[in-house]
Amino acid sequence: MSAGSKRDRHGNTRAKTAPDAPRGRFHGMFEQFRDELDEHHDRRERIVKASRDVTAHSKKIIFALQRVKTLNQEFPPHTQRDMDTRMAEITTLLQSIAPDLQSINRHRYTWPLRCLEELVEALSFAHYLRRQTLITPAEAQAAVPAGIVLTPHDYMYGVFDLFGELMRFATVQRGEVLPANAEDGRRTILRDIQALGCAFEMLPEVPGQEFRGKMEVMRQSVRKVENLGYGLVVRGSERPSGWVPDMKDEAREVVEPV
């Protein structure tokens, strides 16, 4: 079966262009533009796919870490194995796109690379649980493969998200929330999250809705841990032995008139 003929809007058969038709003055230039755009879209597609997988692995690391029971100790063997396996997968994924992020390309694909914020969140959460200190930018950079540069934005916004994980961990492991006992001098999540929150409050404001939104979520996380500590220390003495406050009940009782 022969191929159909091309027709114009009036239905008339269009004349076929001779194969040896002369090229225009700008033909080569537009072919170069076409090739550059094709390379850009292919590069972006690779980065988006890798970023999606890195985000998924980072979230699963965080989920595993939320099951840790205590602070300032090494992780259980099964948790450490899970984290090591997922970090190896993340390294492989990031190495596959490292050549695509050289020179100015790193800043052309800022939005697809939001996975690095999620990765910093996972790294900072693991670092805090194991050492009860905040991960430094240099330590976070050392955990990613060569060729992938963590920007100040990646680090700061990843640590912003750490507040939410500390709040969730404190809600489950409530024995780590109470203020340090004067006898043992042990630091707790309550004091750590307050100190970190104060440090973030002193940051110069970054223009944009994203920064303001992150700051508000951070303040909410700090207040929730403070309310939880308040319920355990003050109101817990009025309750039966073994009682722990429910966060929903706490929120409801705050808004009810006295």
UniProtKB/TrEMBL annotation:
Location of the region described as Disordered in the Swiss-Prot/TrEMBL record: 1-25
Entry keyword Mitochondrion: no
Compartments where located: Cytoplasm; Nucleus
InterPro entries: Translin_C, Translin_fam, Translin_N, Translin_sf
Domain of life: Eukaryota
Pfam family, one: Translin
GO molecular function: sequence-specific DNA binding
GO cellular component: cytoplasm; nucleus
The entry's keywords: Cytoplasm, Nucleus
Main location: cytoplasm
Coiled-coil segments: none
Keyword NAD (UniProt): no
Gene3D superfamilies: Translin, domain 1 (1.20.58.190), Translin, domain 2 (1.20.58.200)
Family: Belongs to the translin family.
Protein's name in the database: Translin-associated protein X
Organism the protein comes from: Tolypocladium ophioglossoides (strain CBS 100239) (Snaketongue truffleclub)
